[in-house]
Automatic annotation (TrEMBL):
Protein name per its UniProtKB record: NADP-dependent glyceraldehyde-3-phosphate dehydrogenase
Active-site annotation: E264
Principal location: cytoplasm
Alphabetized InterPro entries for the sequence: Ald_DH/histidinol_DH, Ald_DH_C, Ald_DH_CS_CYS, Ald_DH_CS_GLU, Ald_DH_N, Aldehyde_DH_dom, ALDH-related_metabolic_enz
Family listed: Belongs to the aldehyde dehydrogenase family.
Keywords linked to the UniProt accession: Cytoplasm, NADP, Oxidoreductase
CDD domains: ALDH_F11_NP-GAPDH
Subcellular location: Cytoplasm
EC number of the protein: 1.2.1.9
Length: 496
């Protein structure tokens, strides 16, 4: 059970503590932030409302701890990460319970997220030892006009203090995807978890605490974004920001200054379906891509662009599958569970009502109870409808009928988002040409968009992000190149 047994020290009364300087602490504010269960719509947990002064202290301690951590051998850093990974997997049940109650993630998927996170941490430890253990050696006479009088040695060194801000939908996995690369690279880290998902994140951080990482190296600061959000992202002690979320990231990027940024900010992932596609395969992937975790994924299918000649058959197959989706509480492992907040449900409903007003075809009756929205397929959607462009982050999927591949590519590229997309066709040559034309960070051929496996590069174009994620890319972006040049008094060439 959350906050009990091994995790008893992270809670005081009914309020979970925050983590700094290797200790679980109560905020001097005396205030807490309520976390509402999306299913019951009642307060489930409470976390500390940290102050700006507590942020300052965490940053100060993180800076000092990082100096010592950067001198820790790579093998030792990896050893501690492996311990944390093992603890995550061992204690997956209470962490998964938090995910079920905080973000209404289906129980089976919640466990999968925690196990996947442990695997990510272990893989990162191994990958970090490999890529950080290598450097470069350059000689000067490879550039015109130079003799061999200079030897250049390059290596990767840490940036300093990393600020990590994961989103609600994967508060454990997308936290460790920032924490593990930061630590193996020799950085310290301050984690600001999302409000919904904060308690799961606190349990995850306790696993790192139990693994034996040095005091002050990791902090987890909870609180209201309105009170400490800007203060954190604009803090002079931050040397890098890794953020996953929505429009807030654009605001952060404008305020961050000369700080490296790694950002994934959502998408309107298009699914282009050609006339020769395997319709059964497409329908199965639309269901998986569009409705898993109630569509609350950055890489969910957000719009289907189907060739007119196969659209009727495709819509009928998808409709038949939508009917079979189970709807209800996450504890019952239902396919469709409540969306994370009432405001999210209201936003989704606004998109649906706009589509209804403008003449979209409802393949199912629109139904909502509280935060629970039944899966809905909208056919004959037109570009003048909001749902054609805006990201619902819910179980509502529009179908736009197209008369040419070019029309589909144009719609995809007209979006201000560019995270992922997919194309279904039996013609691999055509698929490659379409992939090259789509302005997205990733294109999946004959499969729904997806983040992962976690060592694959993951990036967005346009308003979907800055930089690239994936284990190797994250390690590299959380380091900088250090060069040492040996100057010789005379040219040096191989003897003999």
């Amino acid at each position: 059970m959350a906050g009990s047994g091994l995790f008893a020290e992270i809670i005081d009364g009914d309020v979970f503590k925050y983590y700094a300087d290797g200790e679980w602490k109560k905020s001097s504010s005396g205030k807490s932030v309520a976390i509402v269960n999306p299913t019951t719509r009642k307060t489930q947990y409470k976390v500390q409302a940290c102050t700006q002064e507590e942020v300052n202290k965490a940053m100060e301690i993180a800076k000092a701890a990082q100096k010592q951590w950067s001198k820790t051998p790579l093998w030792k850093r990896a050893e501690l990460l492996h311990k944390a990974a093992a603890l995550l997997k061992e204690h997956k049940a209470p962490i998964a319970e938090c995910l079920v109650k905080e973000i209404a993630k289906p129980a089976k998927d919640a466990v999968t997220e925690v196990v996947r996170s442990g695997d990510l941490v272990s893989y990162c430890a191994e990958e970090g030892v490999r890529i950080l253990g290598e450097g470069k050696f350059l000689v000067s006479d490879s550039f015109p006009g130079n003799e061999r009088t200079k030897y250049c040695l390059t290596s990767k060194i840490p940036l300093g203090v990393i600020l990590a801000i994961p989103p609600f939908n994967y508060p454990v996995n997308l936290a460790v995807s920032k924490i593990a690369p930061a630590l193996i690279a020799g950085n310290s880290l301050v984690l600001k978890p999302p409000t919904q998902g904060a308690v799961a994140a606190l349990h995850m951080v306790h696993c790192f605490h139990l693994a034996g990482f040095p005091k002050g190296l990791i902090s987890c600061i909870t609180g209201k974004g309105s009170e400490i959000g800007d203060f954190l992202t604009m803090h002079p002690g931050v040397n890098c920001i890794s953020f996953t979320g929505g429009d807030t990231g654009i605001a952060i990027s404008k305020k961050a200054g000369m700080v490296p940024l790694q950002m994934e900010l959502g998408g309107k992932d298009a699914c282009i379906v050609l006339e020769d596609a395997d319709i059964d395969l497409v329908a199965a992937n639309i269901i998986k891509g569009g409705f898993s975790y109630s569509g609350q994924r950055c890489t969910a299918v957000k719009v289907v662009l189907a060739m007119e000649s196969i659209a009727d058959a495709l819509v009928e197959k998808v409709k038949a599958k939508v009917v079979k989706l189970t709807v209800g509480p996450p504890e019952d492992d239902c396919d469709i569970t409540p969306v994370v907040t009432e405001s999210s449900a209201n936003f989704i409903e606004g998109l649906v009502m706009d589509a209804k007003k403008k003449g979209a075809t409802f393949c199912q009756e629109y139904k909502r109870e509280g935060n629970l929205i039944w899966p809905l397929l909208l056919d004959n959607v037109r570009p003048d409808m909001r749902i054609a462009w805006e990201e619902p982050f819910g179980p509502v999927l529009p179908v736009i009928r197209i008369s040419s591949v070019e029309e589909g590519i144009h719609h995809c590229n007209a979006s201000n988002f560019g995270l992922q997309g997919c194309v279904f066709t039996r013609d691999i040559n055509k698929a490659i040409l379409i992939s090259d034309a789509m302005e997205t960070g990733t294109v999946q051929i004959n499969s729904a968009p997806a983040r992962g496996p976690d060592h694959f590069p993951f990036q967005g174009l346009k308003d979907s992000g800055i930089g690239s994620q994936g284990i190797t890319n994250s390690i590299n972006m959380m380091t900088k190149v250090k060069t040492t040049v040996i100057n010789l008094p005379t040219p040096s060439y191989t003897m003999g």
